[in-house]
Structures are given as structure tokens and as C-alpha cells.
Amino acid sequence: MLRLITVPKSLADIGSNQGEEHTKLCEDDIFDPNNLRILLVLILMIAYGAFIRTVIKIFELKIPYTVLLMLSGLLIGCLSNNAHLCEYMYTFTAIARIPPKIILFAFLPILIFESAFSITPHTFMRSVVQIVIIALVGMIITTFMTALIIQSFFVSYKWNFITASFFGSIISATDPVAVVAILRELGASEMLTVMIEGESLLNDGVAILLYDILESIITCQVDEADLVSFILLKTCQITLGGPVFGFVTGKLAVWALSLIFNDATVEITITLVATYLTYYIGEDILGVSGVMAVVVLGITMGSERTSISPEVENFVHHFWEMLGYYANTILFMIVGIVITETAITKIEPEDCIYLFLLYITINIVRFLMLLLMFPFVSRIGYGLTWQNMIVMMWGGIRGAIGMCLALDVYDNEHLCQESNIGPKFLFHTAGIVFLTVVLNGTTTNLLLNTLKLSEIPAGRIQDMANAIKQLELAQFRTVGMLKHDRFLSCADWGSVYGYTTIVNPYNRTIKPDPHIRRALSLVSVRLGSDDHFTECPECHAMVKNAPTTQEYMVMTEEARVRILKALKVSFWRQFEHGVLVEMAVLQLVNIASEAEDKPFRLVEAHDLRKFWHIEGCLPWVKNTFAKAFGLESEIFPRRPRNIFRRGMWFLATRTWFEAVIILVIFVQMILAIWETAYVFREKKGNSDQYEHVFLGLSVFFNVFYVIEALIKIIGRGPRDYFCEHKLNWLDIAVIFLGIAEIYLYSLKVDQQSALIFVKVFRVARAVRLLKPLVLVPRFIPLLDRKIHTKLFLGYDIGKGFVTAVDDVIKFLPQMVDHPKVLQKLKHALMRERLETVREMGIMEKENPGIAIAVKTRHASRAVLNQMRENLMELKADGLVDAKECDLLLVRLEENMKRLWKTPPSIAPAPSELLLQNISWIGERNETVEFFREHAQLLSFSFNEIICRADSKPTGIYIITSGMVKINYVPTSEVIDDFETVGELPCMELFRDLSFRHKEDDFFSTGTVIGEQSVLTDQRRAATVKCETSVITYHISMPVMKQALRDFKTDHKSLESSMWKAVGIRLAMAVFKKHPNYATWSVDKIRFYVERSCVPLGEQYDSIIIYEYISDILVIQGRVKDSFSEEVFFASQLIPRGVSEITLIHTSKLKTRVLIIPFEDAWENEIDAQDTSQFMSLLKFIHASCKLETDRKSDGLARRRTRGSLRSLRKRSNVKAKVKRHPPVTPKSSEANHGGLKKKSLKNVKSRYAKEKQEK
């Protein structure tokens, strides 16, 4: 260390040392190299730990990592303690001689937070009562039972019961790091792992509590008279103060994390600082349990981990895993060094005998404690089996906490003189730590095997088999693709298969029992997870048979658990992609975890219904106020143009300004009550000592009310203030009362009656309290916002659940092999999905703004995700530098962060704009105007049928409000047409691409019905039925035929655009199930197929697959390979090896294909004179991409033209906050589908359309 020495400050000294400096370095004590060795030893310990992990992995040792570290520390301590062997090494082990408090403060917060943060919150909360019983009550029982045995048998130590209990509190704290690592490695029950780890976390705090209490008693720091109060105070500080403080700091840390977005450095720093500050402030400043505080901190942050940015969460977990690894490595090596350097220096032969007796004692005591608690803990939470109880008993390993407490006793100035306390405590604690780590830690694996707790469940075996199957499929496809590479075609593919083949780690061979004679072995043999065979006694053939009822139940339960886990994975994936809000993913995961705890139960729509129907005080308060005042919201005056008045208008129309006014009124009410009581209590002749105080308050309130009135009069205008809100005269009356009171008081009237009259004036101002009741309607919008926020969450939860079910159903055949179990679970998932979609449709009908807000947020995040992905691809390709990429990434993340504050409700746009959002209508201005002129509004009532199955097409229906149910029942005719000629059924459902099963689904606003029927002129295959009252746009069949004839160009037509819409809908279903695209997200698939086109014309009856074509999907009819004559039907992708296809047309059916080019295909130059098919297809692609780009630019221009939008709303007579469609009274005729209600739309020729054409 550098040390400054100050030169004497006298004038004589200064004069005699003019050439010398006032300070100088002490050359004999510049730096101690031994201090540097502590840092060097830390680095060497970490490096040695990495070496030990590598050795364990290479040689596949079954010894726990911490055991080898402790043995290494013992060896190092033996060498450093022997001055004759290695005196120089003693200087390198100085780290083991630092004060134990520093060790606790440096390493304990890391270990505790890492364990608490990684615990599954749901499992911990369900097991918390069991954990508290074992950790609190069990710890106290263990401590005093150990004390009784020690006092009885360790007679030579002459310990009394208090001293023995003091030692028992030290020796009873568990640290099962090795056991937890083994349980996680073997995939043991999560409940058992959480029980053991949770008990360890909590009983550390209880052990420190008992240690502090007993230490104070032994060292006589507490009087006997104050002993009870001291124990109660200490207990409250540890058991209540620590958790409360940890919860508060946890909430503060969560709040701080919620302000940061995608900044790994800052978010990791917040967790680290919160951990150490919580432990330090709790232990050193507040005097509460730092251990309990950090435990609650970790659990709180773990339960609200959505406050951490999704992209950063993995970094945070990896960071704490690394810190935990470093802390365990250093601690266990320090413990080993301390044992051999300090603990075994002052031992006697009888100490070794006592040590082995103590080892047996603590295991027996722990077993008796668990046996005593077993009747209670086995009936609550997850319960407790006797096998798990045995593992918990054997897993009670002692560790760093006990060693640090024993070292603290050894260094205690009051106890170090006692030879039978300090040294004995340290020796026995070190010995127990050594024996439990070495014996219990190394034999835990054997115990688990003996108790059959390490057996791999059948579900995990099946998951492994499915994973191996998928890897083998990927291996086969990749090898097949690489064989066509001209640079790799001559590779040794046999060796490639040898190098890339993976053996199933769970592969087990069934061996017949040799003790059973073959002729008598008529038994059911299980060869796989779901395969059952019976051996025939005569021919010895293995015949497959159905599983028993018990086996069927086991398979169903295993599949159910896998489905719930897959649902949770999907929930978190949606959160990472930004399409689920924080509260939504937490609620969904909690619901899935609760369902996982209940046998044979999946997540049901009933579990989510509480989020869709708002009940409680908010709706009641809103309805009560609305009925009482007859108003729903206050209408504000227009914002003035004057800048000064505009500021006053801003204040006068803010709800928070009214809240401040009401707060002041209530304060005045309290003072008025006080003043009223004072007036009637005082008698004549008494001096009014508070009169000046009351006068000052009166002046203050009066000035405040005058300022309020001036702000409102200037901001809202005199007419609005006095005429529209006549109760404002009450404010003026109160102001005049205040002025009159001040005037009377200023007259200096001495008569007591006059003063009482003045006081009555003051009390009369309490009538101002009537004003808040009138201003209640101002707060109705706040109630609306709260209700909308909850409904927004409910809609988001429903959409997240539907998306997760779709993801799980896609992979369900890979998760469940048995067909009966597969069908049952799929049916259950589809039922809950349909019910959820139905509830969401009803909510969208009742609250359209909520659905629009959720959809807007999801669409915005999907766009931003795609933009970020494209930006990263540009960076990977070298098209943008790292600096520019980072700048753009920051801008994108700022936009993502803005989505956190999106409003919970967005007013629906005019229904006319819905036409523009239809892809094949909005891509041209001419089509928009044409369909606006010819579209008709139809109103359908509940349960009315819009289109029946097997009915002729009547046109296009575009739902503008309400929800419909589309029901498909397969018929032999539909199936035959699809399988023989590739005729796609005319409907909007493409979930089952075989079309052999019944399907139902619900659709709401924005759904287009009848596109395919109009294009093919074929009968419908599904029925469309109204689930609510529905309003639709109807474009009749003659109008559609006219449009198909009129809007046609060389390379882009309305018919082609409509086929593209049908093709994209089919492609979304095909690509989700195709193995090449199974890992793609829905947004990525949608972006991929969006650049497609459908070429029409005789010149495309034969299509050469050029190099710019990525995929071709048959969307109607059949095509054949021009060379191999292989035929491909509708909903099939053309294999990559095909070079040319021929479309097979019939008189009844025209074949259509969807061509998907590569992303850069539209950038190729176009030669207008070239009429070849190569260039014609490129022109189709260019036309498609150009129209899409123009439509997006046009949409941007429309958003900027706010005045035009307002004029369109005026001309359509549609307001932003009312229902868009007034009731209509149509004709009742046979042509109107049995009473459909029609109303023609007027032609909307607005300035908005003219401006758009000019642009």
C-alpha cells in the first residue's frame, strides 16, 4: 500500500527543508507483495475449478464438482500448514485467513440470490408452507435435539445446554449444492429440488437468528430481565423485517428494470447492485436478516422476470450462473484450506471419536425431525413421499454458512479463550462439513438409484426419441442437398454419415427374462413408450396389442404434461417476440402451471374467462355515477388559438388539476370541521387564540379559489364557465363569502357575537364540498381507461393462448405417438381454442376499440421485428457497417419501447376504410372507388346464416362488425374432387389440409368470405353462421364479374390479386406444417409469401422454374413435372429438383399456382421489349412488388392527411366514439337470402380521394 507521510508544519522545519517536498513516499513500505497474491490466488482458484470441471466431463466421473474442490483445498492446506515442506505456500493461502464476516458479505449474497432467482416461482409458492415448516420449526427442533444429545454424550467438553444449543445452531445449517446439482442433472422431480433448495435458503436465515440470540446469551450481552423481549425483537427482525425489506427492494428493482429496454449492461448491473445493497443495508444498517431479505428479493424478481427485456434475460441468468460458479469454487476451496490450516491444529484423540458420533447424530436427528414433520408436510402443497423424505435427510449437507459461523466463534474475543468452545466448534464443524460433502455428496446418486428416483420417465424417453428422429431427418435432407453441390459431390458420404450420426442416450434394449419358459411367457412386453406386444406361446411371434387402462392413463398424463410445457414455451416465445405484454405472459404461465399440478387437466377457456368479463367495483362505480349524474364524460371546449389561453385551457381540462382542487377542498373540509367545533365550544369572554391561524388559512384558500376561477374562465371561456356549467356559480359564491369574512374581520369588531358571525361565514364555505360530486363525470374516463386496460389484458391473454394452442397442435404428432391419446388431446385443445376464439369475438363485438388496440400493437411489433431481422441480415452481409447498424438498432428499440405505452383502446376507423385494407381492393385507387360505389351494407341477426354449404356463390362478404362461425362438414363429393382433380374446397378454413375431418372456427371484423367461390364459380363447402349480430359489406356476383373483366392488365389483374390472397391463406397453413419451414415464425412465413404472385394466361400453362424462383405452391388443380410426369395436387409444394411444370386444366377447373420468388428477384432489370417467359414472370413479380410498395406509401400519405380523414368521417356521418352502422330497415324478399337487410352506400366522393389521386 502507498502511504503518505506529512512533513512537520513549523516555520523552522519549513525553512530548514526548503528544497524538500511537503510529502514523500515511504520507501520501506511502498507495497507488500503478499497482498497481490490474494488476487492471484483468486484467479488460480477459478482456473483450477475450470480444470476440475473439464476432468469430470472428460472422464465421466460420478463425483460432485464441489467434493473435488474441497479435497483439493484440504491438500493445499496441508502443504501450506507444514512449514518444513512448503513455507512459501503459506503466503498464498492468506485468503483463507480473512475475517469470516468478509467471506459472508462477499460470497453469500451471490449464492443466495442465484438460487432464489432460478427457483420456479409457482413451485416455490405452492411448497412455501412445507418449506417454512421444515426450515423454521424443523431447524429449531434439529438445533435443540442435537444440543440434548451433545450435552449427554460429549461429557469431556462440559458444555451446558446453552453452549450445546449454540453449537447445534451452527451445525444444523444445510448447504446442499452438490445434491441439488445431482438432482438437476438426473432430471429428478422439480418439487423435490425446490424443497431441498428452498429449505437451505430459509434455514440459513434461521440458523443465523439462533446464532445471534445464543451468542448474546453466552457472552452476557443481554440481561436476564430483557431476555424475552430481546428474543422477540430479534425474531421479528429476522423473520418479518428481512422479508419485508427484501420485498420492497425487489419491487424497486423491478420498477427500475421496467424503465430499461434491451440494455444488458444496465439490467445486469441493477440486479447485482440490488443484491449487495439489500444484504448490506439489511445486515449492517437496519439490523434485519440480510439472508432472508436477499431470498425474498430473488423470488420477487424471479416471479416478475418479465421486467427484464426478453433479449437480455438469458444474459442475466448466465451472468448469475457464472457468479454462482465462481463463488462456489472459491468458497469450497477456502473451506478445505481452513479445515487443514486452522481446524485440525488443536485436536485430541477423543475429538475424532466425537466427530464420527456427531456425524451419525446429525443424520439421525435430521431423519427424526423429518419423520416428525411428515404427517404435516405430506398433506399440504405437493405432499411428500417417504422416498423424497429419505433423499432430503441424506441431502442435508453442511457447507460455507456453518464454517463461517464457526470461524466467527473461533475469532470471537470473548470465546476464543475458551479452549473447549472456539477450537472444538471449529474442528467439529469443519469435520462435519468434510464428512457430509464427501460421504453424502458422493453417495446421493446411488441413493437415488436405489429408491428408483433417477429413472427416466417415459415422457422424456419419448421426447428424446422424437428429437433423435428429427435430427436424423435433418441429417438425411442436408446430405441429400449437399450431394448436388458441385464442390462437395465427391465427398465420402459414408464417412459423413458416420461422423454425423448421433446415438440415442436413452436407448435401452429389452431382454427377455431367462427364468420364464418361452412356452409360458404370455405376458405384455413394453418395447417403447407406447408399443405393447404379446408373445404367442406356440409360434413365439410378437403380436401388438392395446395398452391396459392403467397404461393408457399413464400415457395420457405424460402427454398432458408435455403439452402444458410446450404451451409455456410458446407463451415465453411470444413474449420474447413482443406480441404478449408482461402481465399476459405471467398470467398464462401461472394458469398453465396450476393446470400442470392437477392430473388429467389442460388449460381451459373457463380459466381465462375471468379476464374477459370485468367484475367488481370498477364497473359498479362507473354505472352508479353514470346513472346518478346522467353523463358519461365531459365535453371540453375547443383549444384556443391564443398561446396564453392555450396554457390555461390545458390546465382547466386536465383531470389531475381537478384532483388537486378536490384535495384542497378536502383539506379545507377538515379545517372547517375543526373550526365549527371550535366555534360551538368557545364561550363568550374567552380569547380566540387560534383566530389569526384561521384568518390566515381563510386568506390562503380564498386566493387559491380565485386563481382557480381565473384559470378556468380564461382557459375555458366565460360562456362555458358560467353557462354550460352553472354550478360554477357556487365557486363564485364561496369566493364572495371569503371576501365578506375577511372584510368583517378587518373592521376590528370587538363584540363576540360579531366574531361568531365571522366564524359562521368561514364554516359556510364547506358548501364548496358539493362541487366534487358534480365533477365526478370527469373521472368516468379514468374508470373507462382502467376497464379498457383490463379488457386489453384479457384480449391479449386470449390471443396468446390461441397462438400457443396452434403451435402445440402443429407439433402434437411428434409429442404423442398413440393415436387414441393423440386424438383425445387434440380434440380437447381444439375445443378450448374454439371457445376462446368465440369469447374473443364477443368481446371484440362489444369493445371493438380493445381488439383494434391489441391488433395494432401486435402488428407494430411484428413489423419492427421484421425490420430488425432485415437490419441484422444487412450487417451480416456487410451491406451496412457496425456503427450505422447500432444507430438504426437504437431507433428500432426506441420504437419497440414506445409500444409499452400504447393506449388500451383505439377508436375504430370508418367502415369505408375497411375496404381499402383488403389487399385486392386497396392496391388500386380505381378498385377502391369502384367497390365503394357498388358495395352494400347488410345486417344479419344472431344465428342467421350468411352462406350455406353446397350453395351457389352470391358474391363477397366483408365483415365490418360482429362474429361468424364457419362450419365445414366433409362430404364424399368434396373429398373425391380434392383427391382426384385437386379442387380445393370453397371455404376459408385450411387447418386440416386433408379436408377429411370436420372443422369449426370463428372469424370477426375484417374477414373476407367467398373469394374462392367467386373465382371458381363453384359451390361452397362450408356454412357461415352469425354468432352475434353482424354487419357486412356485400359485393354481389354481377358486380364481381364486372370488376374481374374491367380491372385487368398485362401483368397484374384483379383476378390474379384475388388468387394471390387465396394462395397466401393456403400457403400459411402449408408452410407451418412443412419440415423445411417448421422452425419459421408465423411473421417470417407471412413475409416470405407476401412477395408471391399468381400468373394467369395461356403462356403460363407450362412454367420453367428459373433461378429467381424460390418455391411454387399448387393452390388449385394439378400440375405435372414436364420430364418425369409426376403429378402434384393442390396444397403441395413443388420439389426443388423439378425444373419445369405443366398445368393440367379441365373444362371445369383451371389450375392455379403461387410463385414465390427470392427476396432480390424484383431488383432484376426489366426489358420491356422482351416477351419471353423468363421476362414475363419477372414483370409479374415486379408488378406485384410495385403495387405493394405503392399501397404502403399511399397508406403513409393517408395517415398524414388528417384533415382529409376528418372530412371523410363527416361525409360518412360517422363519429369516432359511436357505433359505425346505424340500424337499417331493408326490404324483405326471397332474393335477399330470406330477409337480409340491405342498404345501399352512397358514393363517397371526398376531397381525400382527390388529394390521393393528385399525389
Automatic annotation (TrEMBL):
Its main location: membrane. The keyword Lyase does not apply. Residues 940-1044 form the Cyclic nucleotide-binding domain. Residues 1210-1255 are annotated as: Disordered. One of its GO terms (cellular component) is plasma membrane. The chain crosses the membrane at residues 38-56, 63-82, 102-119, 131-155, 161-183, 285-302, 323-344, 356-377, 389-410, 425-448, 648-674, 694-715, 727-745. GO terms for biological process: regulation of intracellular pH; sodium ion import across plasma membrane. It is a multi-pass membrane protein. Residues 1210-1222, 1235-1247 have a biased composition (Basic residues). It is found in: Cell membrane. Keywords: Cell membrane, Ion transport, Membrane, Sodium, Sodium transport, Transmembrane, Transmembrane helix, Transport. InterPro entries: Cation/H_exchanger_CPA1, Cation/H_exchanger_TM, cNMP-bd_dom, Ion_trans_dom. GO terms for molecular function: monoatomic ion channel activity; potassium:proton antiporter activity; sodium:proton antiporter activity. It comes from the Eukaryota. PANTHER family: SODIUM/HYDROGEN EXCHANGER, SODIUM_HYDROGEN EXCHANGER 7. This is Cyclic nucleotide-binding domain-containing protein. The lineage of its organism: Eukaryota, Metazoa, Ecdysozoa, Arthropoda, Hexapoda.
